[in-house]
Amino acid sequence: MKNNFKYLAILALGLVACEPEFDNPVNEGDFYTSGSADFSNFVAVGNSLTAGFADGALYKSGQENSYPNILAQQFSLVGGGEFTQPLTADNAGGLLLNGNPIVDGNGVNQFPNRRVLMLDQAGQPVGPVIYTEEQATTDIANVLTGSFNNMGVPGAKSFHLLAEGYGNLAGVATGAANPYYVRFASSATSTVIGDAVAQNPSFFSLWIGNNDILSYATSGGVGVDQTGNIDPSTYGSNDITDPNVFANAYSQMVNALTANGAEGVLINLPDVTSIPFFTTVPHDAIPLDAATAAFLTVQFAPYNLGINQLAAGGAISAEEAARRQITFTEGQNAVVILDEDLTDLSSINPGLTNMRQATSEDLLVLTSSTVIGTLADPSNAASVIGLAVPLEDRYVLTTDEQALITTAQTSYNATIQALAEANDLAFFDAKSLLAQVASTGITFDGGTVTSTFASGGGFSLDGVHPTPRGYALAANGVIEAINAKYGATVPVVNPGNFGTVTIGR
Amino acid sequence: MRNLFLAVVLLVSASIYAGGYRVGLQGQRSLAMGHAGVSVVSNAELAFFNPAGLIYLENKLNISAGVSGVFSDVAWQSEQFGQYSETDSPVGTPFYLYASYKVTDWLALGLNVSTPYGSRVEWEKDWAGSHLVNNIELGAVYIQPLVSLKISDIFSIGGGPIYVTGSVNFNRNLSRTLADANGDRSNVTIDASGVNAWGWSVGAMFTPVEDLRIGFNYRSEIILDAEGGDANFDNIPTGLPFEDTPFNASLPLPAELSLGASYQVTDKWLVAFQFDRTYWSVYESLDIDFVNPNIPDSVNPRNYQNSSIYRVGVEYKALDKLALRAGYYFDESPIQEGFFAPETPRPDSNNFTAGLSFDVNDHFAIDASFLYVKSNEVNVSYDFYQENGQNVPFRGTYKNNAFIPGIGITYKL
């Protein structure tokens, strides 16, 4: 009897091993093919978009949904190896240096926690708030050991990836180093691209250059267009990079990454007008009743008159004078803005500020929504910003500023595409993808992803970086480009399985 | 913003409970013959299969008891997205205890304690179908006093009331994506036990000639109404209205009709045939009513259809003390295309059985059985999970199999 039970137990154990097997299992064998590409050691190089930055911060669950991590999971079906990321310590997202927040000269935390979407008692969205339910614990002085397949460094511009010392802790205070790279740089003198190449990638992705125009754009164009200046060491953080500097840096990186014969994918730069940071706040954000509109129009009458007089005298064109006429009507009214590109008339008449009313072509940045309509001087009820007090230049990307961005972006993108062709690499047109998200949206099995702020599903609460679902769309675009180039059949992911904005406090 | 809110409101809309959650393991002797027991007079297993036959058992007191080990695994994959997952379900242990006592030549009393409905499935937590189910454990114990009456030498009837006590524990994620700020997926566990209900069964047995028996049995539908169970919500982002609340729900245990015949071909050979019809169409929709009015109720269409099982089995008395058995049955799935949810993904199956009985002495016998459940790969979907008011199908290829050894004893006095 005892023996019988023993045999029964052995039988049972044998049965447990008999798991159901598919005729063609997706997770083994050759259900999918890598084509002529070799995904065994995939290294991703870039900026915040590569790192998985979202909601204004780099945090763990965001990194897990970075587009290269999504790619790596799919690559694992076709011979892809382990994909390591320099994960932060938490899901709060803020950075510390030796236990303290990293602050600017005014004491403002430069790397606060992520944003989450707050709901009111009724469950209705109130808006994005800084996440406070968890404290930041990621200290950049804790340098991670080992190499990382994800070499995305938030904030990096093209030439930064080649800059020695960009990961030197001592350089953070002076702005010469990037705290995100400090966390995992191989040494105080290493370069991002050097650390990437040292891993001897068999396949790479490169998505860099966004910040070469984006920081100028998000700062409302307060920086300088450095086109013509080929010395990036003289650039300010909000400047536009010279297209030749970009092209030179970019080709150096491609050369370094392909030196061992690696295959890869290059990704171009989307339009800033595709992202909700610039498309959410309307130019005519201020509602007025008839009495207030009439009152304000009277207040601006001397300015309008002065402008017209100078136009008649030939100091400015009639066209400019017309643009600078400020009037209000009952209903929605265009915000009054400062515009440094208007002719400076203050030497003739100090009352004639460089201001005009915004048009539908001006882009008001997302952060202006917390300023417009507030009082410049809390004791003066008449000092409403956007009406009596013009909105500062840093909140508005004017058409002239947009033109500078577009010129640089067009040049950068031409460089990227040309280098993809010259080096026979896959090329993903992220510009077209984001334009589609912004115009018609992209349908998936649970709805449509659009670029509408907070509710569109494509963009996180900083208005610039994608949600996990947005990153999934990017990953799918990259996969399709790779499949087309290398004859691979890497499967795409379902965007519906990736989340959007996070609710919290 | 409005869309976002809608998305949040409509989160609770997926599925609960098992699909074909009938577990046909109600006797090692019958199971070894393809679970074709409605017309076979062998031991107290008749208490479940056909109480009318109890009166034909030769001994005054008959007891049978047994237990099975359900080793069942299900694999799922999506060729479109390269996803793969498989269950790691704990071993299920359905059991039975039957007894009959012959009071007179024409009257026997009996007892049926068995677990004809149940399910136990554990997928990998947060797998691709976790918005439909992470894990489920469903159980129902039938307790039934029985009367078996011989009306004439060739005809008998039997039956009795059934008391059922059921329990369910079920967990799934609230949607495909909702998570708290730590990225931990929001989920709900519903738990109810001691859910009681009543039903009945009645059977008849006809013996037109000495070696031929014809059996009929009907077991009524029983609706388990879970009132005031516990619904616990976990990893809910701050600000959403999901909080622990009682819930009410109903789960039908469908009626089952069996019709069969057995023929003693020679002294050593017995053959049995049986047709079962399970009235699954009662399972139209699974509706979970969360008592908290701020939590939207969950409506999950099922639209099962009535299904049939075709059984055949043989018994060979190899030795005086040893009977060998084998059988086969084809089990038709009650699930229609478009309603295939992964709680208990049971497509049509071919089922192969074998077993033996060994008489230890005049009173005791050991009964053993083995069932292998084989299903073909099926590429199917569940189309009625909703996001933003639109149906989001969950499609994939399923493959499952089950190995079910069972052991029991028969006692007669």
Biggest sheet architecture of chain A: 5 strands, parallel
Number of helices of chain B: 3
Overall tally of domains of chain B: 1
State the separation between the terminal residues of chain A, measured CA to CA: 64 Å
Order of helices and strands of chain B: HHHEEEEEEEEEEEEEEEEEEEEEEE
Largest protein-protein interface: A-B, 55 and 48 residues
Distance between the termini of chain B: 75 Å
Please give the order of strands in the largest beta sheet of chain B: 1-4-5-6-7-8-9-12-13-16-17-18-19-23
CATH fold call of chain B: Porin
Number of DSSP-assigned strands of chain A? 18
Radius of gyration of chain A: 27 Å
CATH arch. level architecture of the largest domain in chain A: 3-Layer(aba) Sandwich
- The CATH topology of the largest domain in chain A is Rossmann fold
Q: What percentage of amino acids of chain B are in beta strands?
A: over 45%
What about the largest sheet of chain B? 14 strands, antiparallel, barrel
What integer value in Å does the Rg of chain B equal? 23 Å
**Residue runs with pLDDT of under 50 for 5 or more positions of chain A:** none
Class derived from helix and strand content of chain B: mainly beta
CATH class of chain B: Mainly Beta
Global geometry of chain B = elongated
